[in-house]
């Protein structure tokens, strides 16, 4: 893991700061195309949602950049595991969960600018503290993180994938309100209004 990180660092050493995110996205696309497309879609939906609730452009740039590389740590996870169909063993699940930590290590090691590190490390935290990496609760989870949590799940539920059926937008929105223990419901209501006018 440390070696892979060092390798990535030396490969990106000559890359200008503004090209480091595209550099990482290309790595992700080569490793796991589905995660690459997921990340791009999450970033675009999140940017439009943030715009709809009047978040200013400078903050949106940071939100979008962070969303683009929130799952970048998956490049250190075996692609067979990423693409595995069916139920994961407890060990496999524990391994998969590490991607948030790996994403955090990568963005810090490569000194990526204009990102919100907490969105990357904490994008799987739940409102009731049952999420990972830290089990943060309620307003200990920043607004940016609570936003990406919603959009990340929404995209995962509605996207067509080779190995899983997509569910309809309506059903996905219902799911977001049903999972009160996962998502900030005030933001879910705003997200539902945003999706409905799209
Ligand atoms: Fe993730």
TrEMBL record:
Residues 13-198 form the HD-GYP domain. It comes from the Bacteria. Pfam families: HD_5. This is HD-GYP domain-containing protein.
